Amino acid sequence: MIHTSENMATIPEQEPYIQALHTSWYKPFVYTVDMLRLDVIHPIVSGNKWYKLQHYLSDATKKGADTILTFGGAYSNHLMATAAAANQHGFKSIGIVRGLHSKANLTQTLQDCIALGMQLHFVERSDYDKKNDTDYLQSLQAQYPNAYIISEGGAGELGVVGSKTIADYIPKHYTHICLSVGTGTTLAGIRLALSEHIKVHGYVPMKGGNYVQETINAYLPNSLQQSYTLHDDWHIGGFGKHTEEQLAFMNSFYETNNIPLDMVYTAKMMMGIAVQLKAGCFPQEAQILCIHTGGLQGNSSIQHKLIY
Ligand SMILES: *Cc1c(COP(=O)(O)O)cnc(C)c1O
Question: What's the mean pLDDT in 81-91?
Fold first, then answer.
C-alpha cells in the first residue's frame, strides 16, 4: 500500500450511502436492517474519524497552527485519519505513538502515516499514559509551539460537534441506530443530533466498557442521559483481540451482505446484533440502521484470513 500526498485522492472519495442487508440476515426477527456505509469515504481512513476531525481542523486554522499533533497506538484508526486529514488540509502532523517497541517493527498503519507526512514520536507507555495531563500537554505545546493538539481518538467537544454531521445521513424512518463505541464521542454527537424517540444502541469493544457512559453523559443534557443503551458483552476477549469464530463471522457476513467489517469495532457490533436479533431484543417492527464506522485499515494483520 502506498499512499503519498501526491496520489492520495481527496476525501471523501465517495459519499456515504445506505445499503440494505440481505433479508436472510435478519428475517423473521425485525422489519429491516440497513447499514450506513461511512467506510466508503476512503479505504484507509475511518468514516467516523474523518467527521470527528473536521471541526478541530477549522479551529486549528483559526488559531494559526501549522501542525496537528495527536496520539495513538500502532494500529490506531485515529492516527491514520489525522495523518490523512492534516495532509489534505495542508498541515504538518505529529503522532505521539504508544510504546517504544512499535518503532522497531512498523505496522502498516504507521507506515501509511509516515507516507502521509506524519512525523512519529515513540514514547514509553508510562509517558503515553500522561496524554491527558495538563503538565505533559503544556510541555508538548512548548516543544511544538505551532502545533494544535487533538486528544487521543479525537475525543472532545469539537469531536462531538463533528460527529453530529453523521446524523445528516440518517433518514427519519429508522427506529434504532446501532454503532460502535470507543471514546463515545461519535455516539454523543449522533444522540444529540437525532430526535429523542429514535433509539440509539452503542456496542463497546472493551472489557467492562460501560465506563464510557460517564464520558458520553458529560456531553448530553440530563434529558438525554437515559436515551441510549450501551452493550459491552461483545468485546470477544478484549479490545483489538479476535477469535477464529469472529473471523468466520466476518467472512460469512461478507458473503451474505458484500460488506467488509473491521475486526476491532464493526465486526464485534454485528456479532452482538446477530445474537440480539435471535434473542428478540428488538421489536418485530424495528427498522434498524447500523453505522459502518470504517476501520478497515486495522485488518492488515489478519488480511490473509479474510476473503475480502
Ligand atoms: C474510533 C472508532 C470508533 C469509535 O468512535 P468513538 O467516537 O471513539 O466512540 C468506532 N468505529 C471505528 C471503526 C473507529 O475507528
Answer: 95
Q: What is the pLDDT of residue 7?
A: 45
Nearest protein CA to atom 11 of ligand 1, as residue: 293
Cell of 266: 464493526
Residue nearest to atom 5 of ligand 1 (CA): 182
- Each residue's pLDDT tens digit, 38-61: 999 988 888 899 999 999 999 999
Neighbours of 4 (CB within 10 A): 12
- Report the residue among 293, 296, 297 best suited for mutation to probe ligand 1: largest number of ligand atoms under 8 A from its CB: 293
Q: What is the mean pLDDT of residues 139-152?
A: 97
How many of the other CB atoms lie within 10 Å of CB of 247? 16
Residue 43 is predicted with a pLDDT of 81
Does the pLDDT at position 5 exceed 60? Answer: no
Please report the atom of ligand 1 found closest to the CA of residue 81. Answer: 15
Say how many Å lie between the CA of residue 13 and the centre of ligand 1.
20
